[in-house]
Design the sequence.
C-alpha cells in the first residue's frame, strides 16, 4: 500500500547550498529529503527553517538545518506512515528497507489523507488549536513573511474587525511573486514595496465549525486541496485545524 501512495522524490544533497534549496521550494515544496552521495536519507529540510537564512549567505549548506525524520518502506501500511507524520508534520521518505535507507519515494500529507479513515464521532473541538496567530488585512506581506520565518507557521487566518475574511499561506506569497525568499525589513527600508495582505490572501475561506467531525474536515481538505481549516462560530474565528491534527486524532 505504501508504494501506491508515494510519488517520485525531489531530494537535495547534504552539501547543497541553501540558495539551491530555496529555488526548489519556490516550486511548491514545503519539505525535502536530504540524502548523501549514495542517495541514503539523512533527514529532512523544511521551508520555515530555510527562511531563517538570509539570501546573502550564499555559501551556507543545508547540513546545519537537517531535521530527523521517521522512514517508511514498502511493508508499511498507511497507519504506520500516519504515525510518522503525526510526529514530524512533514512528508515521509520511503526507503528500500529498514537496513537500506536508499530513497525510493516520498509520501506527502495530501496523499496520506486520502488513504486514511476518519471517525465521524470525533469533533473538531477536541483536536483544534485554539491559540491562533492571525494577521490583519492591512498588514504588509513582508511582516507576515517574517512572522512565518520566526514562529514556523506556514499559514495565517486574516481578520478584519475581528471577522475572518481570508487566509494567507507561504505558497500564496510565493505564487503572488511579491516577495523573495529572504529576510525583508518589516519597516520597508528598502528593497521592494510590500503590498497589503488583502492583495494576496485567499478568499473565500474554506472553514469548518467546531461541532463538525474530523471526517468532515478531512473531506473538505481533500476536496479543496488545503492543508488547514479555520474553525469558526458564525464568522468569529475560534481555532484552526490542520492535517497533522486530524492524523493525530486517529493515532
Sequence:
Amino acid at each position: 500500500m505504501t508504494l501506491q501512495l508515494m510519488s517520485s522524490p525531489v531530494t537535495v544533497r547534504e552539501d547543497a547550498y541553501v540558495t539551491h534549496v530555496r529555488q526548489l521550494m519556490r516550486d511548491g515544496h514545503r519539505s525535502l529529503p536530504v540524502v548523501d552521495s549514495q542517495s541514503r536519507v539523512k533527514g529532512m529540510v523544511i521551508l520555515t527553517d530555510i527562511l531563517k537564512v538570509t539570501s546573502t549567505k550564499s555559501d551556507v549548506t543545508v547540513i546545519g538545518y537537517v531535521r530527523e525524520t521517521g522512514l517508511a518502506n514498502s511493508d508499511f501500511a498507511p497507519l504506520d506512515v500516519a504515525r510518522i507524520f503525526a510526529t514530524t508534520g512533514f512528508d515521509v521518505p520511503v526507503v528500500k528497507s529498514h537496513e537500506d535507507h536508499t530513497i525510493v519515494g516520498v509520501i506527502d500529507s495530501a496523499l496520506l489523507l486520502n488513504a486514511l479513515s476518519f471517525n465521524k464521532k470525533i469533533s473538531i473541538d477536541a483536536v483544534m488549536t485554539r491559540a491562533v496567530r492571525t494577521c490583519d488585512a492591512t498588514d504588509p506581506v513582508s511582516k507576515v513573511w517574517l512572522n512565518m520565518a520566526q514562529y514556523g507557521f506556514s499559514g495565517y487566518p486574516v481578520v478584519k474587525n475581528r471577522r475572518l475574511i481570508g487566509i494567507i499561506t507561504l505558497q500564496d506569497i510565493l505564487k503572488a511573486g511579491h516577495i523573495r525568499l529572504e529576510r525583508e525589513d518589516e519597516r520597508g527600508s528598502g528593497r521592494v514595496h510590500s503590498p497589503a495582505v488583502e492583495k494576496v490572501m485567499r478568499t473565500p475561506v474554506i472553514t469548518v465549525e467546531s461541532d463538525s467531525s474530523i471526517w468532515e474536515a478531512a473531506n473538505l481538505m481533500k476536496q479543496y486541496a488545503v492543508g488547514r481549516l479555520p474553525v469558526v462560530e458564525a464568522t468569529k474565528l475560534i481555532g484552526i485545524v490542520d492535517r497533522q491534527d486530524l492524523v493525530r486524532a486517529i493515532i
Notes: Residues 181-190 have pLDDT under 50 and may be disordered. The chain has two domains: 2-114, 124-250.
